[in-house]
């Protein structure tokens, strides 16, 4: 069954879109990542214009992440205080990122920078997570000793001022660190057009030292608010938010997210991290291949806005 | 519904106006043509559309049909291999490019007239006046032009060959024009030419409106007219969907 989407300006099969939504929603519920690094390229692949894909993805992400955040909230797995502190940095960072995005679009290099950012960010995070999670899986198999508590911050983090206690995460850390993490993620979100969960989740675990249990929920809360902001700004300035397309994908997405949350309960933290690492590395490898292999046509066309 | 009728009426009136004002040659009308519909309605169920162009000619001759979408600006970019990866380098901006282009004829164009005859009326892809901004070596221009046309063909918006004008007997002809689902919105020009002995002996232009109709038109219009409210609704709808799913699926 095909539907014509008014803003994307083409017709697409509804069941294919629902399936994509379920798959991406499943990942977001399970890992606390938005799945934008999968969905946005998929939408572009099936013919949705680049700008519409990014904006519409932000819109559908609100539903998937809000549904996931609520589920985590009910099990008290959201650190609101941490979320708010990170958000302050995030809003500033995304402002800078939007400016960079406009500049890169103008000079025609935005797609290259997006691809390269994905390869580097996904590759580095994927490798780090893969090594760490495999090591802790092996360790937990050998001996059943409880993992040392998170919260061992490096020296440069411990000497920073404006320390604050985050009760739910059970850490005591300078607010500058979560703000900086939030800002860094904000820049990437604006440039790469994704929710940023795949950067935020590892940063929360490895830089802030938050326990995995609250990471997913806090990250989902963060993504909900960031994507609300992005959707609103895009609707206002570029009119590229396709509500109909977003509704179809989010229908699949919210269903998938619930299953993802259920499965994440059954797996250990390091198992979830190992699976996420595998997924990130797969996508990074695919994008790297696309950059290196000669394209079918060396020439491409676009409208004046990119 | 009323919008549908209004637009259809408008398109028809426009078509009649053009027919009426077209310069009438002194000799008897040699060429008459019309479309099965002057409006391609892009509704929620739109998956592409066929419009039938039909007509009649007086005496021996060849019929060539050109369908042209509204002009747009297009940027063509060329990738180079730098440090092992492919990067966009040179770019050319073509300020006036038909967003859709189709040419149809009853036999191959080169058997109908000389390229010079086609060039004047921009008949056929090689004859399109695609000129980039700025001065470039002609060889480079040609490469970018060819790339532009190739990419438009890949999008299904330029016909890759010359479509068939079918003659039914000696006088009646018909041609089916296909518009894919990604067809650009706007006013199209359907030009019908009658060639006799290699020169244009008669011509007729009919407008064709491609317009969003119904729910998809309303949504598009609302998104542009009241962007603030549209953005708020988009956010609230998504929040409601997320909440509803979380609440109803929890028990499952």
Domain module tally of chain B:
2
The helix fraction of chain B, in percent, is 25-40%
- Describe the biggest sheet of chain B? 6 strands, mixed
Tell me the strand order in the biggest sheet of chain A.
1-2
The percent range for helix content of chain A is over 70%
Helix and strand pattern of chain A? EEHHHHHHEEHHHHHE
- Main interface pair? A-B, 61 and 65 residues
Query: Strand percentage of chain A, roughly?
Result: 5-15%
CATH superfamily of the largest domain in chain B: Macroglobulin (MG2) domain
**How many β-strands of chain A, per DSSP?**
5
- Spatial strand arrangement across the major sheet of chain B: 2-12-11-4-7-8
Which key features would you list for this structure?
heterodimer, A: two-stranded antiparallel ribbon, 11 helices, B: alpha+beta, Immunoglobulin-like, six-stranded mixed beta sheet, 5 helices
Task: Describe this structure in a few short sentences.
The complex is a heterodimer of chains A (306) and B (252). Chain A is mainly α and 306 residues long.
What does this protein structure show overall?
The complex is a heterodimer of chains A (306) and B (252). By secondary structure, chain A is mostly helical. Chain A has one domain (2-292). Chain A is 71% helix and 7% strand. In chain A, helix 1 (14-31) packs across helix 10 and helix 5 (110-142) packs antiparallel against helix 11 (269-292). Chain A is globular and about 55 Å long. The model of chain A has no long low-confidence stretch (mean pLDDT 82). Chain B folds into two domains: 2-212, Macroglobulin (MG2) domain (Immunoglobulin-like, Sandwich); 214-252. Chain B contains five helices and twelve strands. A six-stranded mixed sheet of chain B has the order 2-12-11-4-7-8. Chain B has a four-stranded antiparallel sheet with strand order 1-3-10-9, with no helix packed on it. In chain B, a hairpin with a 3-residue loop joins strand 9 (166-168) and strand 10 (172-179). Chain B is flat and about 75 Å long. The relative contact order of chain B is 0.21. The model of chain B has no long low-confidence stretch (mean pLDDT 86). Classes of the chains: A mainly alpha (306), B alpha+beta (252). Chains A and B meet through strand 1, helix 3, helix 5, helix 9 and helix 10 of A and strand 5, strand 6, helix 3, helix 4 and helix 5 of B. Strand 5 of chain A pairs antiparallel with strand 5 (71-82) of chain B.
């Amino acid at each position: 069954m095909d539907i014509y989407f008014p803003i994307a300006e083409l017709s697409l099969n509804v069941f294919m879109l629902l399936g994509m939504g379920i798959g991406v929603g499943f990942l977001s519920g399970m890992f606390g990542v938005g799945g934008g690094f999968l969905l946005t390229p998929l939408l572009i692949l099936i013919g949705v214009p680049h700008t519409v894909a990014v904006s519409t993805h932000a819109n559908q992400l609100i539903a998937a992440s809000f549904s996931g955040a609520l589920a985590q909230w009910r099990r008290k797995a959201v650190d609101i205080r941490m979320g708010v502190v990170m958000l302050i940095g995030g809003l500033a960072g995304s402002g800078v990122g939007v400016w960079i995005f406009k500049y890169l679009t103008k000079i025609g290099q935005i797609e290259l920078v997006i691809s390269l950012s994905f390869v580097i960010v996904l590759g580095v995070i994927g490798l780090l997570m893969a090594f760490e999670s495999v090591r802790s899986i092996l360790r937990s198999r050998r001996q059943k000793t409880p993992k040392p508590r998170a919260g061992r911050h490096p020296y440069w983090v411990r000497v920073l001022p404006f320390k604050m206690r985050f009760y739910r995460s059970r850490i005591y850390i300078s607010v500058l660190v979560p703000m900086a993490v939030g800002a860094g993620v904000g820049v990437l979100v604006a440039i790469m057009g994704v929710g940023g969960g795949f950067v935020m989740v590892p940063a929360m675990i490895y830089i802030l030292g938050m326990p995995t249990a609250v990471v997913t929920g806090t990250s989902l809360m963060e993504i909900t608010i960031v994507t609300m902001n992005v959707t609103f700004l895009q609707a206002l300035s570029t009119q590229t938010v396709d509500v109909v397309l977003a509704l179809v994908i989010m229908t699949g997405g919210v269903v998938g997210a619930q299953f993802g949350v259920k499965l994440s309960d059954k797996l250990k933290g390091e198992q979830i991290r190992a699976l996420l690492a595998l997924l990130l590395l797969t996508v990074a490898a695919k994008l790297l291949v696309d950059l290196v292999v000669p394209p079918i046509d060396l020439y491409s066309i676009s409208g004046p806005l990119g | 519904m009323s919008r549908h009728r209004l637009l259809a009426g408008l398109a028809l009136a426009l078509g009649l106006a053009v027919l009426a004002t077209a310069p009438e040659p002194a000799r008897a009308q040699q060429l008459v043509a019309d479309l099965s519909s002057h409006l391609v309605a892009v509704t929620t169920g739109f998956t592409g559309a066929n419009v039938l162009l039909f007509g009649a000619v007086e005496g021996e001759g060849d019929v060539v049909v050109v369908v042209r979408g509204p002009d747009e600006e297009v940027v063509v970019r060329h990738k180079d291999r730098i440090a092992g990866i492919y990067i966009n380098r040179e770019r050319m901006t073509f300020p006036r490019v038909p967003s859709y282009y189709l040419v149809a004829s009853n036999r191959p164009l080169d058997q109908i007239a000389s390229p010079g005859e086609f060039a004047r009326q921009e008949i056929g892809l090689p004859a399109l006046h695609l000129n980039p901004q700025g001065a470039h070596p002609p060889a480079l221009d040609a490469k970018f032009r060819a790339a532009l046309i190739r990419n438009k063909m890949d999008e299904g918006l330029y016909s890759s060959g010359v479509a068939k004008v079918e003659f039914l007997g000696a006088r009646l002809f018909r041609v089916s024009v296909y518009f894919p689902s990604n067809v650009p919105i706007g006013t199209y020009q359907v030009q019908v030419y009658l060639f006799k002995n290699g020169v244009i002996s008669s011509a007729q232009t009919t407008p064709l409106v491609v317009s969003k109709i119904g729910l998809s038109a309303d949504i598009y219009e609302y998104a542009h007219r009241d962007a603030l409210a549209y953005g708020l609704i988009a956010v609230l709808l998504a929040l409601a969907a997320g909440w509803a799913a979380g609440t109803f699926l929890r028990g499952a």
